[in-house]
Predict the structure.
Amino acid sequence: MRDSDDELAELLGPPAEHVSPALHHALLRQTERVVQQRLWVRRIIQAIAVASVFMLGSGFGWWARSGNRPELATVDQQPMLIPIVVLVPVPGEPAISAPLPKPPPISATQIELRAELADDPAEVARLYRTAGDAFLRDQDYRNATRCYQLFLTQAGDSALLLTPTDSWLLTSLKNAAYKEKFHALAPIDG
């Protein structure tokens, strides 16, 4: 729907065809000239700013080096005795020492890495079990299961016995390993 009596139709419509090419060309040249002038003005302002910062820095450096600083008031310097308390241990008495800070707890991954690097099989088994307990505390069941299985492999048959300190996951893995071993050794009746 188009209103023929729209007041803004002249302004919003296409330009009239009566614009001469000479006017168009003159307007283009004037616009280009203004843009070039603004570009040069901007460059000159930037160059002046850089030069002024350089001059300011150079002037400050010259002032600081030349010794044109105001003199500070001098104070009579007299030796002054300041008592300092020094603790000297007396022979025969135990030295007072602060308790050593506790080392940060070792992560389960670090414990597992120590188990991989250990040489003694009993130590390897103990470290794998400790890593499994740490992973279980962190609720990382996959890694806890893997460490517990490595513990059972390294510790041998004696590790299959249940102890009161076993976690629920380790107890479950011990039961499964015991059943597997028992069924593997049971004679087949046929």
